Amino acid sequence: MKRAIKRLTAVVLAVIITAGLFTSAFAVLRGDVDLNGKINSLDALRILRYNVQLDTEIDEKIADINGDGKINSLDALGVLRVSVGLDEESEVEDDEPSAPSCVADIVAMYNDAVNKVISDKAGYTKQRTTTVTHLDAGNYTSMAGDIVKEFLGEGTSEFKNSKGNSKYLAKASLTADDVTSAACQKTGSTYTITLDLKNGTSSYTSKKAEDKSPVAKTGLLSGNQLNPEYDYLNSASINAGIKSKGAKANSVSTETINTKIVVTIDAESGKMLSYTASFDLEVSIKKISVAIISVPSAEGKAHTAVVLSDFKW
Question: What are the chain's domains?
Answer without folding.
Answer: 2-83 (1.10.1330.10), 103-312 (no CATH)
